[in-house]
Amino acid sequence: MKHSLLKIAAAAMMACTAWNVSAANPFADVDESSWAYKAVSQLSEENVIEGYPDGTFRGDKNVSRYELAQIIARLMQKQDLSDSQKETVQKLSAEYADELTSLGVRVSELEKKTGNLSVITELRVQDVPRYSNIFKSNKEKYDELSLRTRVNVMANVNPRSTVYGQLESFTSLNGKDVFDPNMYSWKSEDDDSIRGGHGDSEMHMNRLWATYHFGKKQDTSKLPFGPSKNLIGIGQFPVKMGVTGYTYDGQFKGAFISFGDYQKGGRFTIAHGRATDINYNYTGPMMRGIKTTKIVDNSIAKLAGGITSAVANNPALPDAVKMSLAQKLAGVQAQVASTDKSTEKVSYVKKAIAGLVTSKNPIEQAIGTQIASSDSFKKATEGLASLTSGKMGYYDDPSSTLYPMGSDTVMGWGEDEDVPVTYTSYIYKKPMNWEFHAYAMQANGPVGNICKAYGFAGAYYITPKWHIQGEYVKNMRKLPLNNERPYSFNYGLHYGTTNILQKGSYQIGLDYVYSQAGTYFGGSSDAITDQYMGHVYKNWNGMKNVPAYFADKIDGIAAFGAEESNKHNYGGAKFFLAKAGFVPMRGLLIEAEYGFKAEDMGGRKMDDMLMLKATAYIK
Q1: 293, exposed or middle or buried, with CB in 10 Å at 0-12, 13-18, 19+?
Q2: Which of 461, 471, 468, 470 is nearest to 439 (CA)?
Q3: I want to staple 245 with a disulfide (CB 3.0 to 4.6 A). Which of 109, 178, 249, 618 is the partner?
Q4: Which of these, 406, 429, 469, 26, lies nearest to 267 by C-alpha position?
């Protein structure tokens, strides 16, 4: 038997809800003076009924048994039904049992239904380039096509206590390595073992935490994820800094307390624990150190090679003189290779040039004097001297390990790689109008000597569609890398808002990101941002996974007559990031991002980057 949708809505409203409507009219063809307006509006607000993509309700349209079963199924999910209302829905569920079964809905024991356990499966397919060298002048990359699977579980222990969990795995779909912040491959020079990590398709616990809701008891009948205000939590929980999460968007192991509501109004939070989603290939060498033997050898070879090339390409020199100089420089490189002492390696180069200056051959003497007095040679030898003397960093032995962030930041290999952190924030939200964030973060232990930061962020809706956003982060620690207290900022303009529950919703936007080296804390919310701000060379002069901020500086100080010797700032990134998202159906989000006009703080151009991804949520 066919029924009109308006009659069904009115009957459902009378049977199961109270008259309490404050929402705006959700459908263009339901007049506010209509007898059915209150019923239709409230049931729409509570997601019991839906309209059509064109924004209409079409209440006079007949509905099928299957469509009616969908409405009954949603009524069965409601937690605030009285005994008589449950009885009414029970009778309806018995009448439409076959249709409800096809929807996967249990129809028995409705009166015992508590909704204690919720499970949402999240599947994300992503295609993004991964770089061994991101700079346009010498780029190396491969395509990563991957599947990320997350199983999210929420259990209501009681009205005040909730447990949350998330299992996660990464699977390669094209046989290429998949990046996972916790699947690093930075190796100790003392052995070949890979430090930590998750295997391909290996399921691991990404989040597991419990919360307790204190203070005045909150009505959670319309809250799908439990209480949202006045929470104490413990375990491994998510933390996002700012509006975009470019600075950090990952997990903490520890505890937090939060005063206020995270959905709207003001909220003050203090969290203490360990940041787990750290790009360890990028941050590890800061704390664990880098072996210097290869670094100095490569730098000396680069300097000697630069001098040899300059001599060989000088058209004014006779071939006999070029050959003689080449033999002498080859002898210097042999001496360099024969000693393990870094200071002696630099000394051999200086002595070789000094020998040319005092040569009895006037041509060699002129060449030696020209080289020794050049700014390029002075900068290179001074840089190598600072590298081997410990002025650029701290050595446990001048011929052994360099700690680029100084002696106070040394951490041993046996220690936990997660970074201990205390984090606090104040956030005020007026949904779809504006929001403001103020936060501070202090790393604890040795890392605290290079990481103590604060930040501000905000978003403002100019119209219901257009909104702007901006963020600023300052690291108050002065870092030896560029001898500065670095900062970063980003701002953007966006149109529309994607809502995974609203078919047809979309968003487009453009952000500009400026991040000096030392304000990227190793775990962004975005794969493109991660690679621009935290680039790592997979192979640098025979060394595996060396951060670009460090490698570029070493190349710069050892350069002879090269562009790198004129650079003053290393690492970091500044770039544009265009974004687009679309929800073609409830539970499916399709996104595209494009990074362009990217370069590091020294002006080196980075490759443009396109990322595509689709995320499905299954309940």
Answers
A1: middle
A2: 471
A3: 249
A4: 429
Among the residue ranges 5-14, 57-66, 279-288, 374-383, the one predicted with the least confidence is: 5-14
- The DSSP code for 567 is -
Looking at the structure, tell me whether residues 145 and 258 fall in a common domain.
yes
CA atoms in the 13 A half-sphere facing the CB of 436: 5
Cα 216 to the center of its chain, rounded Å: 36
Judgement on whether residues 517 and 444 belong to the same structural domain of the protein? yes
Estimate to the nearest angstrom the gap between the alpha carbon of 314 and the chain centroid: 49
Q: Which of 462, 528, 464 minimizes the C-alpha distance to 490?
A: 528
N residues, the chain: 619
- State both tokens at 601: 């703080």
Residue 195, number of CB atoms within 10 A of its CB? 15
Nearest to 536 by CA among 325, 293, 278: 278
- Considering only residues 580 and 114, tell me which one the structure prediction assigns the higher pLDDT: 580
Q: What is the pTM of this model?
A: 0.72
The verdict on residue 549 lying in a domain is no
1, 62 Cβ separation under 8 angstroms? no
Nearest to 95 by CA among 14, 35, 11, 39: 11
What integer pLDDT is reported at residue 553 of this predicted model?
A: 74
Number of independent structural domains in the chain: 3
| Among the listed residues 37, 113, 102, 101, the one whose alpha carbon sits nearest the alpha carbon of residue 75 | 113
Cα 534 to Cα 530: distance, rounded to the nearest angstrom: 5
**C-beta of residue 426 within 8 angstroms of C-beta of residue 439:** yes
Residues 6+ apart with CB under 8 A from 467: 459, 460, 461, 493, 494, 497
Alpha carbon distance 346, 353 (integer Å): 11
Residue 81: strand, helix, or coil: coil
- Mean pLDDT score, 285-306: 69
* DSSP code string of 402-431: EETT-GGG---TTS-SSEEEEEEEEEEEET
User: Could you tell me which residues are beta bridge partners of residue 277?
Assistant: none
Is the C-alpha dihedral spanning 279, 284, 286, 290 positive or negative? negative
Q: Are 531 and 130 in contact (CB under 8 A)?
A: yes
d(CA 51, CA 586): 13
Q: Which one has a higher pLDDT value, 15 or 239?
A: 239
Task: Please tell me the predicted confidence (pLDDT) of residue 127.
Answer: 97
Kindly report, residue by residue over 382-404, the tens digit of the pLDDT.
Answer: 666 666 655 445 444 544 567 77
Answer whether residue 408 is part of any domain: no
376 plus 397 within the same structural domain: yes
Give the containing element (helix H, strand E) for 514: strand 506-515
Tokens 């962030």 — which residue? Answer: 405
Q: Report the alpha-carbon distance of residue 120 to residue 116 in Å, rounded.
A: 14
Q: Which domain holds residue 380?
A: 290-403
Q: Alpha helices, DSSP H only, in 374-486?
A: 375-389
Asked if residue 508 lies in contact with residue 494, where contact means CB atoms within 8 angstroms, the answer is yes
Task: Tell me how many helices (H) and strands (E) the chain has.
Answer: 13, 23
Helix (H) or strand (E) holding 551: helix 548-557
DSSP 408: G
34/564 Cα distance (integer angstroms)? 74
Q: Mind listing the pLDDT tens digit for each residue in 407-450?
A: 777 776 555 668 899 999 999 999 889 999 999 999 998 888 88
Q: How far apart are CA 328 and CA 351, in angstroms?
A: 11
Residue 366 is assigned to a structural domain of this protein: yes
